[in-house]
Amino acid sequence: MPRRKNGLGLVPGVGGCVRPEASMRRATRSAFPTAIRLLAMALTAAMLAPAIASASEAVDLLLVFAADVSRSVDQPKFQLQRDGYAAAITNPRVLEAIRSGPHHRIAVCFVEWSGAGAQKVLIDWTVIADTASAQQFAAQLAEAPRSFADRTSISGAIEFAMVQIERSPFEAARRTVDVSGDGTNNAGRDVKLARDEALAKGVTINGLVILSERPLSWNAEHTNPPGGLDRYYQDNVVGGPGAFVMVAENFNSFGQAIINKMIAEIADARPRRFAALPALLLNPAGALMPISFHVGRAR
Predict the structure, then answer these.
(1) Looking at per-residue confidence, does 237 or 79 come out higher?
(2) What is the spatial distance between Cα 48 and Cα 27, in angstroms, rounded to a whole number?
(3) Is the model's pLDDT at 124 over the cut of 90?
C-alpha cells in the first residue's frame, strides 16, 4: 500500500521521514553522473569512427615480406639482405609501380623467420604510398635487431604470414607472401601442405631464392638440393596466379633481385607494365605456373 503522509507532508521511511521533493532531487542527482558517462562514451565513439574507417582503407596489394634469418645466413649475408629490402622499398622504380595502381598505395608487413615456431613481426602493417612512408619503413628496418638464427621452417613462415594477412586492417584484392631464403625446409611440417592451404585462400606465394656459392659443409643438400634451389622453390614453395621465383645468384645481387621482384608483385598485370620481365609473365596461361628468372649474371 502507498505510504500516507503525516501532518507535515513527510513520508515515513527507514530512519525517519523525508519530503517527496528531497527524494526526487536525490534520484536526479544519482542519475546525472550516469547520463554524463553515457554521453562521454557516445562522443568517444564518434571521435574514433574516422580512425576505424581509415584503418580499413583499400590498398592495391597486401604484401608480407618473409625473410629467412636461419643459421645458414651468416651476419654479412644477413646485413646484405636487410640492406637490400631497405633499398628496394625506397627505389624510385618501386615507388613508381606503387603509384601506378588504382589506389596508389600498398600495405606491407615485414616478418623474419627461422625454425619451427621461430617467427616474428619486425614491422607491422604499414601503408607505403610515397617517398616519405617508404623511407620511414626502411629506417625502422635498419634499426631492428636480428630475430633468430635457427633451423629453416619455410612451412612455419608461410603459416605465420597467413596469420598476418588474415588480421590485416587493410583491404586489397591481391594478397601476396614474398618468401626469401637460401635453403630447403628442414623443420616444421611439410611445406607443400602450408603452401596449398594458403593458395586455397586465394593468396599468391612468390619466392626469392638466394643461391650459395659453396654448399654447407655439414649439410650440402640444404642450400644446394638436387636440381637446384630455384627448382625446389618452384615445386614446393610458390604458387598462385602469376607466381614466380626470382633467383639472386648470391647475396651481393640480392638488392637488385628484390627490386625486380617487388616491381613484378606490385605492378598491375597489364603487358606494358611487364615489358622488362620474362616472356612467360606476359602469357596469361603460362603465368599460372611458377616460373623463375635470375639476377646476378648473364644467362
Answers:
(1) 237
(2) 32
(3) yes
**C-alpha radius of gyration, the chain, whole number:** 29
According to DSSP, the residues that pair with 153 across neighbouring strands are none
Predicted local confidence at residue 48, as pLDDT = 43
pLDDT per position as a tens digit, 146-198: 887 789 999 999 999 999 999 999 999 999 999 999 899 999 999 999 999 99
Give the domain ranges of the chain.
13-54, 59-295
One of 3.40.50.11540, 3.40.190.150, 3.40.50.410, 1.20.1250.20 is the CATH number of 59-295, namely 3.40.50.410
Beta-carbon count within 10 A of 85 CB: 25
Rounded CA separation 82/86 (Å):
6
Around 180, how many Cα atoms within 13 Å sit in the side-chain half-sphere?
A: 30
Q: How many CB atoms lie within 10 A of CB 269?
A: 14
Pick from 249, 253, 73: which is nearest to 152 by CA?
73
